[in-house]
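USER: Please consider what follows.
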Amino acid sequence: TVLMSNIRVQGNSIGLQKNGSSPITSGSQQYGVRFNLSVGTLSNAIVGDNGLGGRNTIADNTADGLDLNGAGVGSVLIGGNSIYNNAQKGIRLSGGANAGIIAPVVASVSTTSITGTITGTGAANKIIRVYTGKDDEGRKLLGQIQVPNGSSNWTLNGSFSLSDSITATYTDIDRTSAFSAALAAPASLPTWTLSNSGIGAGNLNGVAATLSRIITVGNTGKIYLSIDGALTWTLVGNGITANNLNDIVIPSNANSSGKGTGAAGTQGFGSAVAVGVGGTILRSNDGGSSWASVPSGSTNELNSVATAPDFTDSTLAKGTGTAGTQGFGSAVAVGVGGTILRSADGGDTWSTTTVGSAELNGVSVNGGFELRATAAKGTSTSGTFGVNGFGSAVAVGVGGTILRSDNGGDTWSTTTVGSSDLNGVSFTPNFEPLAAGSRGKGTSTSGTFGVNGFGSAVAVGVGGTILRSSDGANWLNVSSNVAGGAVGNDLLSVQMVSESEGYISGTSGLVLKTIDGGVNWTPQSIPTSSDLNDIAVLADGSGFTAGDNQTLLVTNNSGDQTLPVSLLAFTASSSVINGFGAANLAWSTESETDNAGFSVMRRENTLAGALEGFKLVANYLSILTLQGGGSTTSQKDYRYTDDGVSIGSEYFYRLRSHDYSGTVHDYPIIATVRIEAAGSPKTYKYELRQNYPNPFNPQTTIAYTLQNAGQVQLELFNTLGQKVKVIDSGFRSAGEYRVTLGSDNLSSGMYFYRLVAASERGMIVQTKKLLIVK
């Protein structure tokens, strides 16, 4: 009798060469791993990940990837492996191996959940692992979940960008099944999905969001609030008005000084303002749960409202008070007949002015994310921060009207660009408290910050009109820079999420996205033909667009289809070689699918660079080190040195991958570098990086960099905005840091981690999303 136990097969590339990606081209490979035992007992064996690491890649074998044969093979746990491209089955059980455990069934697939069933009922230690793959193999683990006790049904929730089919395995304590039959993802899986449960009939005109709450407003005074990521909606406001509401805004702060009427605020944010017909202004200071009407002093219809962003510094965009009132300081609303309303006390009171007679449809306010005295703050200097709580503002309207203020709204200058009506405008935000530079700040360089108090902006209008400005005075028409050609749709709303990333919504279900600061735009997959009146996208990729016919669409991945390369990191640093500057680029991939290679794109941080956009500087066809890994789930590292740069200049880089078929894919991650002279001290930027791995269990790593020394607080929040853990805290010098987060005492689900870094220059706040799967 043969008795065997505790066999471990972990951390191997089986069927592949040492590089982990190329198949063995000679010899008899046959099975990747095989246990064949009809007499005796094999127990407590593990192939792959038992929760402590050790996953295998089992690929390109001429028979089965993993073969278990015979009743003597009593218990083999199989988990987390990447099993693909084997000639026969990914996992084969025969002859009573693993007690004949039956594979699960995958029943449905969507961007937010994958469901299925098992034979029998769930209990402790009964685990479903879900993979992407083809046929009956599993190439990439999406996540795992314990089957609910007493149930035969299971659901894996999360944010999924799906291209391949879905398979699953079932583990009962210490024995694992073969792969389930594969279920193909929908042929045209939309990246935006309808999520309007609880929203009544009628049109929705505005939407605003934070990490914890989303609010949408519409006709006949309807206000809807969601606290579960837009899964369900609740009607709020108690019918305070019957007038149509056209727009809503929530200040973009995330700190206690701007959190409503309390020291720490309520519900994760404080004030919100909605505007509409008849000069209606409504205001909430409790996270959108209750609303009050505020006298506006005008009966003209108000079409748009904007607030000055607030990032904690008590003098920044805080109205006339030291710390502002009721959760934010300045706000501007615009409407019919050139009406401009301004509040400097958090929306309690409003003053009225009229500039011309053209109807104004959109407004954007730049409170200055650059935390220093002269940063985007209007005409103020020497440590002051503009007047009326903000610096620059721009409003747009009919007939190509563009109004601009660089003194907090005291006076406005008027220009006309073309004749098309303009419906929306958005500043390009900059969240980094730089010591000097011109990022997103107009034509200025060497520590000055643009002209007329603001920098980059995008305006949109009828007939597909898209305008860009890098100085607030001159506007470039980029309407033709849409993939597939210019669109004829009326463009209704625009939001720039970052220097590079932005979104436009329009009629007939149109959404456009840019990843190069508004130079070029790409249509997204949208499952509706209704007009989309407003759009709001957060930095973590969560997005919401509201439209006619009670349409409310949601994305959890910035609206992107699955990209064939999963990037772990993309960084840039400077060096001097033989007296000339160089940018050293480095990136790593978690997995690649059909990747022939990369191109490197570069943009200089100048006005000319902003107008021209990213230009090709290197291509895999001529640079061997840029050639891709084909299809692989093994990590692959890349390096490239760009010597076509100048000392003293700043550059932005992004990557483009190429399929073997010729299809190209652009990646939104931007690496930034300033080329320093030899001997200059190493500089860092403020950056909170995506955790890895993600999803995870039992632990993950979070990295962040600090430009300046100061106090740091890295915290974890649940989807209700409640703080559940302090991950890191204390005084830190400028530099790069890595911390480990464990899943102990945390349940499965989505969380948000937030970095708050304070220094003598101000404060930076950045937030990202992570997923725990147990």
Summary: Residues 607-612 form the longest helix (6 residues). The chain has four domains: 3-176, 193-555, 562-683, 684-774.
